[in-house]
Q: What sequence folds into this?
């Protein structure tokens, strides 16, 4: 049953892209947790709090993407193995530099922005306004954060 009035032939490709976004957010979330736990240096207090803010936001986005996939009557990926297999964002093991951590966050944002924009083209063509609106909010928020981190990196 097509209770959303979305072009059904386009849903599988949209969901494939949403699952990639979901997997990347999961790895991004875990990196932010690790950065929060392991940050050291003269910017400890501001970065410790900022990383916590970011991982709390990421977990909300993870839930929203998974629930959107379910709304589209499909199944979200939901295992660590799947996340690691399809994620473009990679885990990190070096927590020696707060600068490297911030650069990692900015790089993750760039990857997520690229995926979200590509998916939004698909959702727009399928008259999937719900997913388009969700992605648009994610993009706007991430663009602002990217600008702020870019300004911080100039320091």
A:
């Amino acid at each position: 049953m097509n209770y959303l009035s979305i072009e059904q032939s386009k849903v599988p490709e949209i969901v494939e892209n949403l699952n990639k976004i979901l997997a990347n957010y999961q790895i991004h979330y875990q990196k932010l947790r690790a950065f929060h736990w392991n940050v050291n240096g003269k910017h400890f207090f501001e970065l410790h709090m900022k990383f916590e803010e970011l991982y709390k936001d990421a977990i909300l986005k993870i839930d929203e993407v998974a629930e959107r996939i379910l709304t589209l009557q499909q199944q979200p990926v939901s295992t660590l193995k799947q996340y690691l297999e399809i994620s473009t964002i990679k885990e990190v093991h070096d927590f020696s530099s707060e600068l490297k951590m911030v650069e990692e966050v900015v790089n993750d944002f760039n990857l997520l922005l690229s995926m979200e924009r590509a998916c939004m083209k698909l959702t727009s063509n399928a008259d999937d306004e719900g997913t388009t609106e969700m992605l648009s909010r994610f993009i706007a928020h991430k663009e602002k954060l990217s600008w702020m981190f870019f300004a911080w990196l100039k320091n």
